[in-house]
């Protein structure tokens, strides 16, 4: 594909709108136009309509087609669920088998809907798949929506350009008319969620639509995205592992974002990493430490860490660096929430069930707090398994029986009761876990990084951003000692678990040897 290079002064005297015009459906070429909105002869919208966007963008007929397609898809899905599962006992094997089949068919319909309607529907599909609470049939099918090429983004296109001083830049150009399209699309989504709730009262998704609307609204303001980018760069200014592209403010508007062009491969491209001599496990560890710092320490969280938004550059002090892109979706955590979340992770690591239940009351989830360990660490609240080692067969069997008693009503109630900060954390954590699996890192890497940053995050409560070097050093020392103590506890628990397994193995071997010895002795006596 040919790329058109547009050159313009590094210090523009007038504010310019950069508008990218892709070629026809094949997108064989790209050219750039400079437009001065102060020109009295032509408005910006008129320029778009008359010059380079002659086709209809958001006409009534277009909206009707998209809406009709969405309504038809959801109607078919509702009918499929209603009649495929009709009359089947909920706790029967046949019901579970049929449910999985309906999930698969419905996920495929929704995938086709997202790909046909594009835009915010693709974003909605990406948003859903990032939540680990959806059925696996949906997450596996809709995961293809995460892999959209750079020139076919859902709300904007990114093009490569060069300034007059030869500085390479990436220019992100928003499609026109998106705000009106967003209002229409999200209204339809809200209407459909209410329809589903009418047919299936236990399936309540209004919380999901509301969170999606809030999230996608953030992405439409490129000025705010640029500010988020600079704030993140400031937060990690002392971290040589992180690089955030420089923003060219004189060439940035609400619809056009111009930033430094950065090279690198997608963070989950394991084959390329190995070719470059970069250890994927080290990348995984660096990645999770960066996001743990965002969540537990800064309280300013990048809410869309899918692989396309994180590059690995072969340059850097440690042989590579992480390039963070797309800073549209961020969440500023309430300070009280941040501290409670740090406490939750400390309790999760130590499996302090009493503290977990107590924090569940703070978060407003009540009895559902018992599922926090399962959601975040893969253990039950009563688990005796070592951290990051999974559950025993008995624990899995007991959990399966417990989960069978849960209804969709319970899941809806749980998600509705969560603080809004929790939803973006669940989304971010889900995307991170997916990347770590692709990089071959164990869950323990993530858990230990979270534990360390949670402890440091708690230390900020008593020493908020101290300007005194000695006090700050003592705070770090205290945190490191606490972390080492925690690691020691975990290693001892691992050792005890290992010794228990060895003891069980030796007991089994002894039993078998006794049986063999008895049988051999009996044969010898009979022969005698």
UniProtKB/TrEMBL annotation:
Residues 132-358 form the ABC1 atypical kinase-like domain. CDD domains: ADCK1-like. Pfam families: ABC1 (PF03109). Belongs to the protein kinase superfamily. ADCK protein kinase family. This is AarF domain-containing protein kinase 1-like isoform X4. It comes from Juglans regia. The lineage of its organism: Eukaryota, Viridiplantae, Streptophyta, Embryophyta, Tracheophyta. The gene is LOC109010658.
